[in-house]
User: Fold this.
Amino acid sequence: MKVLSVASECAPLIKTGGLADVAGALPGALARQGVEMRTLLPGYPAVHDALEGGTQVMTDSNLFGGPAQVLHGTAAGLDVYVLDAAHLFYREGGPYAAPDGFDWWDNADRFAALDWVAAQLCTYGAAGWKPDVLQAHDWQGGFAAVYLQRLGGAQSVGSVLTIHNIAFTGSVGADRLGWLRLPAEGYNPGGFEFFGRISALKAGIAYSDKVNTVSPTYGQELMTPEFGMGFDGALRARGADFSGILNGIDTDVWDPATDPAIETFKSPRTKTRARAALVAEFGLLPDQGPICVVVSRLTEQKGLDLLLDALPELLDRGGQLVLLGSGDPALEQGYLAAAAANPGRVAVRIGYDEPMSHRIIAGGDAILVPSRFEPCGLTQLYGLRYGTIPVVATTGGLVDTVIPLTVATRLAGAATGIQFRSGNSDALRGAIAQLCTVYSEPEVWTRMQQAAMKHPVGWDVSAAAYAALYAEAAKTP
Ligand code: ADP
Ligand code: GLC
Assistant:
């Protein structure tokens, strides 16, 4: 089975969030299932810098406004096709936004171009390699299935769209239809029309053979008006062709026994050194309560305004907070103010820092994920692996990955974390109170840590589920 994954970000090359981790981990996880996955990436500067042995496999003299070529090679150990189109991708700034923080003005063109090339690679093959299935991610891959149909490739190549986050719709004015090489007959509510505009995500939902999202619970939620953000009807219409497959994490990159970024440890007992290193690094005062940590984008989705409200509950009980993140300026200011008001008890770093994220997650006692919605969430999985107890909202993948502490799970020794009703700061206060209580009961606490560290968080089960999905989507047995 050969699969072309078309991804707008891919760790460790370029990353804004969990999508990059998933795109970067899937090829390795799928190789163990007998699936050969190659990845088509935009030629961002960071991708070109990492590309080794790029051989030209395709050229186009006018790809949405400029010349382009596709290079095949390796980058960070991945087998990649790089879309070298300087007019679209060779820019300083992020994958989706300019250095000023605003989205690139031509995002629709940029990812339409990527999707067009993906469909061409699938339809005609490149240098003797022709995929059985096209795997697209989020709105950035949404047009690929439409183009695959338009080019005639859909007869022989299956298509799968994975939704990592429904909040990004990839919308553009309907007047762009011709320029974007979209078929006029697709502009209707059953196609890619979305509130009077064109949506790339809607296109992917309507045209892909299979659609999935990154946890079973988020899959259920997406079919409701409350979470579907206008796509719930389109998803319900897909019936059994829409499913949820839980993300895993790269257990080699996130391994407390070998992680080069930390004071390594193998059990809850030896975790104390990583904790001590964190206390020293952030100048925390000796205290009785749990060190709670957060590593997150600071956005509405993540519910971190609720945590600001509930912070006094944690501090009153002798707990501490270490937060690493960036995003919404009001939240950044709010957390910086909390740190200034509580020196030695609240430590905040605004920015993006991969090694620091490992140190924080390894050294913390508990990791807080108070999201309003969360398709899967990866940091609670890192927490489990490092014996850092997840305290999570009951939404999306957080429900599917954490076994909440109840009377029953406590007796059975099965609990791995604490859950609370999402979107509610009183419920979060209650969860923090529960956390502080259980933290003061060493036997229960250690048992939870042990259960957490044993919980399977790797890709094996889910990679098999993706392989099965590809087999269903493929046109040739
Ligand atoms: P999302 O994709 O919605 O941001 P996930 O939990 O799936 O949420 O993935 C977020 C990823 O980004 C994780 O790998 C997390 O460790 C990482 N991350 C988020 N913020 C930071 C930061 N400030 N520094 C380092 N890593 C971060
Ligand atoms: C998205 C979601 C996150 C998920 C990640 C990877 O960014 O917000 O919950 O873990 O994609 O699928």
Q: What stands out?
A: DSSP finds 19 helices and 18 strands in the chain. Residues 17-18, 21, 295-297, 324-326, 352-354, 357, 376-379 surround adenosine-5'-diphosphate (ligand 1) (CB under 6 Å).
